[in-house]
Amino acid sequence: MNWKKGYSYLFRFFIWVIKRNFLIYVIIFLSARLVIDFDRVERKVKAKQLNELMPAFDYLIDFEEQKLAPDKKKFEEFAAYYERVDELMPDHSEINGLLGYSYYYLGEQAKAIERYEKAIQLNPRYFWFYFNLATIHFKSGHYEKTVELLSRAIEEHPVLTLKLTVSSKEHKRIILGIKNVEKALTQRTERGYTKAYVLLIAAHYQMGHYKDVVELAAQALHRKIDETTLFYSYIGLASVHLGEYSEAKKVLKEMISADPENAQNYRDILKVIEKEIKEKRGKRGLSDAKALADLQERIEEVGHQIALQIF
Question: Which CATH code, of 1.25.40, 3.30.450, 3.40.50, 1.20.120, is assigned to 202-305?
């Protein structure tokens, strides 16, 4: 009978353990449910806050495509929205990029630079972060920094740039306002790389790096990037500064055919170069050539007209 009594005690102990653990399981389950419910409520509150702050994203595309004057009120709305997103989801590269873009058009250049630098740290493969930061530096006359950033930017393949653009959740909100999305984004990306070459060459030219100007312009022509006449112009001007008159003459003759609208300007420069060669005055004598000065002013103006671009 003792063995029966022992089993009885064992059975009671087993039941006690089950009941005790069951209560623990119930407490754990209810606690977890409360945490989940709290998280769900918190997410709903955050989503509501963002929805209330959400600006009209189609303005950004219209602003760029139509070359509108910056609307301070609208950019304040964008800044407020992205600041809140940044608080809720910190360390997102595209949010930092969009904040940099917003701050720049609010006239807060230092904050824009800081955000673009952080965006690059978070995603060092995205072309547009380098391009926009370089554009800010170019407009401020920081040509060495411009060269550093754009030399890195053009290393990234346009296909990767496009892929990173469309994979961004925040960019998708803006993309929704674009018609013929695939074609439009491809064209915007191609224009971005063209502008990158223009600014990179312009920065080298401003620093007197004429050999780099010739090499980069030739590279751009080889890659069949737009702005052909501009790149020819830079090769011609840089060749003149280097005293390589035969190369300058060759390029200028090609430009007469490629850019008939400005053909007379190129002919005038050719006459000046031929006169310098004949009189052996050297390239210093070219400084008085009005045609040369006009060409230089025209191509420098192109660089300063380039603006930031979201993607």
Answer: 1.25.40
